[in-house]
Specification:
Layout (H helix, E strand, L loop, with lengths): L1 E5 L5 H8 L24 E5 L4 H7 L26 H15 L8 E3 L8 H13 L10 E3 L1
Parallel strand pairs: 3-4
Antiparallel strand pairs: 1-2
């Protein structure tokens, strides 16, 4: 069992993000939308039950997904903490597929970070588009969800 949560235990992070105009003044995150005006925070808990593929097959369990690779990075040197690196994001996408031994040509759905910020969203969209541009077309698009 893998679980994670995000709780607002103290106001300091909200104060800091508000002071640098990172938070949406109307508390609505409109990622990849012309009305986007900032990031909206929330609390939540997520739990996933994991099992070795061989065990699930042996036990006759329904298999909803297989994790082939996982990766994370950081943007390195950018002009500021609210300015992500599209180059680093594109590199991470391609490296994750490479590590998993998967072709990018089969991907039809991509879940994005989508901060709802004027700097972050265009850079993320460009990184996703650059990563998949040789595999998708207007007739056979990649669907991006935030």
């Amino acid at each position: 069992m893998v679980a994670g949560c995000n709780t607002a235990g103290s106001p300091e992070s909200y104060i800091w993000m508000s002071n640098i105009n990172f938070l949406s003044p109307d508390s609505r995150c409109r990622s990849f939308d012309h009305r986007a005006n900032g990031y909206a925070r929330g609390e939540g808990v997520g739990v996933v039950l994991l099992k070795r593929l061989s065990d699930a097959i042996r036990n006759g369990n329904p298999i909803r997904a297989v994790i082939r690779s996982a990766a994370s990075n950081e943007d390195g040197r950018t002009p500021g903490i609210t300015q992500p690196s599209g180059v680093a994001q594109e590199r991470l996408i391609k490296e994750t597929y490479r590590k998993a031994g998967l072709s990018m040509s089969h991907t039809r759905f991509f879940e994005a970070h989508g901060t709802g910020t004027a700097i972050g969203d265009p850079r993320e969209a460009l990184a996703i588009g650059s990563s998949f541009r040789n595999y998708r077309s207007a007739e056979d698009p990649l669907y991006v969800y935030d």
